[in-house]
User: Fold these one by one.
Assistant:
Number 1:
Amino acid sequence: MSSSTTRNRAAGTGQYTQLATNPAGATPTYTAKKPRKPLIDRLADRAVALLWVVAAAAIIIYTDLIAIYDHPELNHTASILALVSFGLATATFLYLSIYVPRVHKTAVDYAQWQRTAPNAIPFATACGLSGFFCSAVAMWPIFGLLALPMLFVLFMGFIVVVSIF
């Protein structure tokens, strides 16, 4: 028996009646929209997001990160593991954002992900962390300690780009 209903035994009808959920007995009211942030806060958020993307692009351009795969000091095993890990994380993102809503006709509630997608979010997190670790190991012989802040900025730029979708 639900906590919000009870059997109407006095009337002997066997039907359920709705119980009041608050002391006043009134039904709760819900607002349809969240209040919007002020314009200056929204512009500040966009400016910070743009700075992360510009910083990530600058790292890619000025370190010639695309051509790093041919560098003789690159740890190729770790770089391949990093690419596989990031590929799995991206596939999980695409599964949750495109496949599930369009094929299964259900939306994934990210606020309640433990119920709607219990294994997908932890799997993507583990893939992202292993990709970050493998990237750091792969790039360490080339960039040294600078590999960690570079990867962090690249990660933040990636997150900002993904949040657009």
Note: Helices lie at 39-62, 76-103, 113-116, 120-143, 147-164.
Number 2:
Amino acid sequence: MSTIQDFSDLKTVKEAAEEFGITTARVRQICIDNNIGSKRGRDRFLTPDDMDKLQEIRTQPKKPQNTFTVSEAAERLGVSDSRIRQLCLENGIGEIKGRDRFISDKGMEKLKSIPRKIGRPKKEI
């Protein structure tokens, strides 16, 4: 493990945020989620390699290819977002990435095949 002798290459979270045009909170969150940067006390410092990783992570597409968001699936199927989330939980459909759920084409086919009942479910006595 190499040690850094020249601290002028290090950037603070605030400097990184200004460079990328995002908030300091977003930089901190990316660093925490991806284990980037060194922490000393309450401050986090980023090396040039860390800055490259940060830039790479920022430019990654948020939505995986050939998938639908909950809102897109709900619009296609003509039901509410909450109903799609409920069906996904009950049937193990979709992939969760961060706080978003993405549904593949296969998952959409499964959602379409689930019979829809009109009205409120009856209480079982």
Note: Residues 9-59 form a domain with the Multidrug-efflux Transporter Regulator; Chain: A; Domain 2 fold (CATH 1.10.1660.10).
